[in-house]
Design goal:
It contains 8 helices and 11 strands. By secondary structure, the protein is α/β, with parallel strands linked by helices. The structure holds calcium ion.
Length: 220
Amino acid sequence: MRALLIEDDRMIGAAVRQALIDAAYAADWVTDGATALQALTDQRYDIVLLDLGLPAQDGLQVLEKMRQKGIDVPVIIVTARDAVDSRVAGLDHGADDYLVKPFEIGELLARMRAVIRRRAGNANAVLGNGTLTLDPATREATCNGTTVVLSAREFALLQALLLRPGTILSRTELEDRIYGWNEEVESNAVEFLIHTIRKKLGATTIKNVRGLGWMVSRTE
Ligand code: CA
């Protein structure tokens, strides 16, 4: 999952970005609307966290421009403006949810999971293809009766595959779901993660399609 954080407060931005990385998101952080709109044009995101009080253009304007451009990524407004009018305006401009500062990181992460789930048309919190299941709230994976807790990056990789069962994802596509900007990616990082996931859950959980990438079966 790739998240874009639009926040001009340096301390909040740094703290939320780190919390997103710890929660297995590939997290990119920008501090103004123009950079945000460029990032959203260049890159596919799964979710956007949007502050309203931004320099130059207000968060609501950014949201309006995003929707005008046809960028329909889920958006959670995260702001200190707690007036009812402000919440209504945010939701009416096309936001999916609204969280008032100060907030607990745990609540933000739960709202992110809920918004992503709703957008995917999936009421079930647990991902899975029959024998293999993954719980985004706990990072627990279960395969053939074995339950293990995955590391943040193992989780991010397996989640990317389980969101598109039966589809081969290339190394670049997987890296894109796991690492944000400024994160150093070792050349064999994806292979290493596949290896550690297979070690925990069994060799057959992820199939290698030579020269193309990796996939999980649609049903097992
Ligand atoms: Ca602000």
